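Methods — Computational structure assignment.
A single polypeptide chain was analysed. Its primary sequence is given first, followed by the predicted tertiary structure written as structure tokens.
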Amino acid sequence: MKIISDISSQPEAALEAQKQAKLVDAAQQFEATMLQELLKPMQHGQDSWGGDEKSNDTTFDTMSSFGTETMAKSISKGGGFGIARKVVSQITSEHQQKSEKKTSGY
């Protein structure tokens, strides 16, 4: 019985498109994580009623954290600060350079 891998059965263009989509997704997740860390201090400024007292309600903290995470992901998916684009560009460029070196033999 011969086992054929999924990679060899797909056309190379489809495989490259799949790799590119995974790279873009990973870069956007990275940017969203960075944005989430930048947004965290803003969620601790005031409670939902505008007071200055620190809330001991863990439900509020959890919901606030989910809100910050969702906002960071949305900002990143919408283009964000361009960090994801730069990461994709840099990795793609380095991959192309390595591929050219392999084909030219240097």
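Note: The radius of gyration is 21 Å.
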